[in-house]
Design a protein that fits this description.
Blueprint (H helix, E strand, L loop, with lengths): L5 E6 L5 H10 L3 E4 L1 H9 L5 E2 H5 L14 H8 L5 H9 L7 E5 L3 H5 L6 H6 L4 H11 L5 E3 L5 H10 L6 H30 L14 E6 L11 E5 L10 E4 L5 H14 L6 E6 L2 E7 L3 H11 L7 E5 L5 H8 L3 E6 L7 H5 L5 E4 L10 E6 L2 E6 L20 H14 L7 E4 L4 E5 L5 H11 L8 E4 L7 H8 L4 E4 L6 H11 L2 E4 L8
Parallel strand pairs: 1-2, 1-4, 2-3, 4-5, 11-12, 12-13, 18-19, 19-20
Antiparallel strand pairs: 6-7, 8-13, 9-10, 9-11, 14-15, 16-17, 16-18
Length: about 525
């Protein structure tokens, strides 16, 4: 590129704009601008040339046409290395534009507003902005394109250090960022239009568009010889609602999987709850009047397996909970917040990762994706809400109120375990967890075997139906008094009869919760 003399600045996001423009002005770079950007810069005392004065045409059609003019796009697209282009600029009295600073109308944010009018969304589709950005990115060899206010400092530094000649490597990097910017913008628009055209019974769009930005490199993947990185969805609140790591080592791939499982588990509970997760499965889940009560109950389920686990609580970590956690080897703690006096107790374990983050929330229409060779499979998310009033009791004995409370808790716990799974609980904590077994009777036996607390008088939950009575018999032998399961087996009658033989109360939910 030649030495920069002229910049076109037209942005919606005006963060740090005035300081950046003042920097351009100090370097003797003329500034062209439009609309609200022009007014912001002029009110800051900067000398700015209005684009309408340059082109000889006013902004028309409520601002829809401002920069779509040969004096703008000719100045951006001209190849400074071609004599014919330079001659044409001179013949048509077009001055080259060396920097284009532009970002686009907030289409994604506007389209997601509840109850927003379609006409308002359509009006937020930027036309001139993407044209300028794409033109400047195409001509990166002669033009610097800037779409992100975070890049302003390095642009000013490069202009100052090189006498207005921005290095080619930086120009190319900015061009890539610009094309990603317009790609994401167009993807959001096409996605909105496609959803607008869908019928109400169509759950999955014909094209599922992903716009992901790398957030960080991870320590490693599932194994140390595998690389890994964390990507966030552009335009959304961020991974785990935008987490903050307060201390500890870098995150690994497995840390994040366990973190997701832990957050998903505690988000199902309204009262203070804690989940201890290892290898994407719960070692224990507890609830109580306080977060530390919930944690201690969760830990009691399987303190040996909890070694090196991830812990999530759905309340802020206070000093009492911090003291309880600090005495054990833990990889990761997740919570909505950490009290100031709790942090010093946890800081003694310098490798312990602390993440302040939101609990998992699901939205209607959300999809989950998993890779398969050559593509992805998609499903709607398993909703968190559960209407327990719809559960039916086919057994002779109805569950007591205390048993119903325990069954509701057990049902939330079993959702956190890998299928096939059966969990045994009391009202306040998991007692035995049989997760990820190939047969349901083995899951039941494993839940009994893993139990370190008293199983007599407990309840159990099964994430899928009982295909035979043997799983229920194993639970009855351990003293389980009530069971919740989806139902739907060909042998439901046989299983119900078995429950009646043992005096077990059983509820059927009509909905299973497999988690492969």
């Amino acid at each position: 590129m030649l030495t920069a003399h002229r910049a076109l600045v037209s942005v919606y996001d005006k963060r740090d704009l005035v300081d950046f423009a003042k920097g351009l002005d100090r370097l003797g770079i003329e500034i062209l601008s439009t609309g609200g950007t022009f007014r912001a810069l002029e009110s800051a005392g900067l000398q700015v040339v209005r684009v309408a004065d340059l082109t000889g045409y006013p902004e028309i059609l409520d601002g829809r046409v401002k920069t779509l003019h040969p004096k703008i796009h000719g100045g951006i697209l001209a190849d400074r290395g071609r004599a014919s282009h330079v001659a044409e600029l001179r013949d048509h009295d077009i001055a080259p534009i060396d920097l284009v600073v532009a970002n686009l109308y907030p289409f994604r944010e506007t389209s997601r507003k509840p109850g927003v009018d379609i006409a308002k969304v359509v009006d937020s589709i930027d036309v001139g902005g993407p044209c300028m950005v794409r033109a400047a990115a195409k001509n990166y060899q002669g033009v610097v394109v800037v779409v992100d206010p975070e890049d302003y400092p390095q642009i000013l530094a490069a202009l100052e250090e090189t006498d207005g000649l921005v290095p080619e490597a930086l120009r190319r990097q900015l061009a890539v960022k610009a094309f990603r910017h317009t790609q994401a913008y167009d993807a959001a628009i096409s996605d909105w239009f496609e959803h607008l055209s869908e019928s109400e019974d169509e759950q999955f769009p014909q094209h599922l568009l992903l716009d992901l930005a790398k957030q960080s490199e991870l320590r490693y993947g599932e194994n140390p010889h595998q690389g890994a990185a964390l990507y966030r969805v552009q335009g959304d609140t961020g991974v785990f609602g935008g987490f903050t790591q307060l201390q500890g080592k870098e995150l690994s791939y497995n840390n994040l999987l366990d973190a997701a499982a832990a957050l998903r588990t505690v988000a199902l509970h309204t009262e203070p709850a804690a989940a201890i997760i290892k290898h994407n499965n719960p070692c224990g889940v507890g609830r109580g009047d306080t977060a530390v009560d919930a944690y201690e109950r969760a830990l009691a389920c399987d303190p040996v397996s909890a070694f090196g686990s991830a812990i999530a609580v759905n309340r802020p970590v206070d000093v009492e909970l911090a003291a309880a956690i600090a005495g054990r080897f833990v990889e990761l703690v997740l919570a909505p917040d950490f009290a100031a006096d709790a942090l010093p107790k946890l800081a003694k374990k310098s490798n312990l990762r602390l993440l302040a983050c939101e609990l998992e929330k699901t939205r209607p229409g959300d999809h989950e994706l998993r890779p398969v060779p050559g593509g992805f499979i998609a499903q709607t998310v398993d909703p968190m809400e559960e209407d327990e009033s719809q559960w039916v009791c086919p057994t002779k004995r109805q569950p007591t109120q205390a048993e119903r409370t325990a069954l509701g808790f057990a049902w939330r716990v079993v959702r956190a375990a890998s299928s096939n799974s059966i969990v045994i609980t009391n009202e306040y904590q998991s007692v035995g967890i049989g997760a990820g077994q190939m047969s349901r009777v083995d899951a039941a036996r494993f839940a009994v075997t893993k139990a370190q607390l008293e199983t007599e008088g407990c309840v159990a939950a099964s994430d899928g139906f009982f295909p035979f009575r043997d799983g229920l018999d194993a639970l009855a032998e351990a003293g389980v008094r009530a069971i919740v399961q989806p139902g739907g087996s060909k042998r439901d009658t046989e299983v119900t009869a078995a429950a009646d033989e043992h005096g077990i109360a059983m509820l059927m939910t009509g909905r299973r919760h497999f988690r492969h």
